[in-house]
Amino acid sequence: MTETRELPRVSVNKLGEYLVATPARRKRIIHDQKHPPEAQYLRYPEASQAITDFLCRGLDLNVLRESQRRFACAVPQTEFEAQRMQLCAEALERFADLVPWLDLDDAIISAVGAEPPVLEMAGVTISVRPEVVVQRLDKQGNPRVGLMKLYFSKTHPLDERSGQYIGTLLQRFAEQHLCRLGPADHRLMTVVDVFAGSLFVAPRAHIRRLGDVVLACEEIAERWAVH
Fold first, then answer.
1. Which of 50, 74, 90, 172 could disulfide-pair with 67, CB 3.0 to 4.6 Å?
2. Residue 32 to residue 130: CA distance in whole angstroms
């Protein structure tokens, strides 16, 4: 049975899309976030986990290849499951093409964990769920912290604005929840649009963007009950 969320909640990826979407698409995003699909109907959790494993295990491409082989050899029980395995395999292939551009030399990468905290803005819970924490020393030898978030969509690619909105929310998340690891560095906040083959880094200037996020959350909260 499909879940219905009584209180406003949105994923960071969908919020980034919402901020630049048409009115019709914004309406659809609110509806889908209020009535999310059951877990077995999500398309990319296996791909997300495989990429996380790759990042946390020394950027060993054999980790990606092994996951691709596992997806190819899986025996699907339904047509949806077969499509999901095909999409996950394709996602790993696309991500492998981006690896040389990730700029993760000398970084310490660790998984965020299964139940990360959330952000709260204007009555809306924002589920950020970054895949990994990125730690690096700056030129003076001081620790800096960042995050990487994966975005999977073949039909709604991110543009520069939506990617930077998500990056800004990654920085906000790091400032609130990862300060024990060191100051958040916007240059280490990376959003990866896997299928589009695009990388976005959080901008240095973020006050205006956070203001836009607050306004968008106010709108989502106001419209939640009618969707």
1. 50
2. 20
| pLDDT at residue 81 in the model | 87
Identify the CA nearest to 96 among candidates 220, 227, 197, 214.
197
**Cα 82 from chain centroid (whole Å):** 24
Residues whose CB is less than 8 angstroms from the CB of residue 191 and which lie 6 or more positions away in sequence, other chains included: 16, 148, 149, 151, 158, 163, 166, 167, 170, 199, 200, 201, 202
Name the pairing type of β-strands 143-151 and 184-193.
parallel
Encoded tokens for 118: 């959330």
Q: How far is CA 205 from the centre of its chain?
A: 21
**For residue 211, what pLDDT is reported?**
96
Q: Where are the beta strands (DSSP E) in the chain?
A: 9-11, 108-111, 119-121, 124-127, 132-137, 143-151, 184-193, 198-201
Averaged pLDDT, groups of 10, the chain, 227 residues long: 84 96 96 83 86 94 91 86 90 94 92 90 96 94 96 93 96 95 96 97 93 97 89
Cα–Cα distances (Å) from 104 to 73, 109, 136, 171, in that order, read 31, 9, 9, 17
Q: Give, for 33, the enclosing helix (H) or strand (E).
A: helix 23-34
Q: Does the model's pTM come out above 0.90?
A: yes
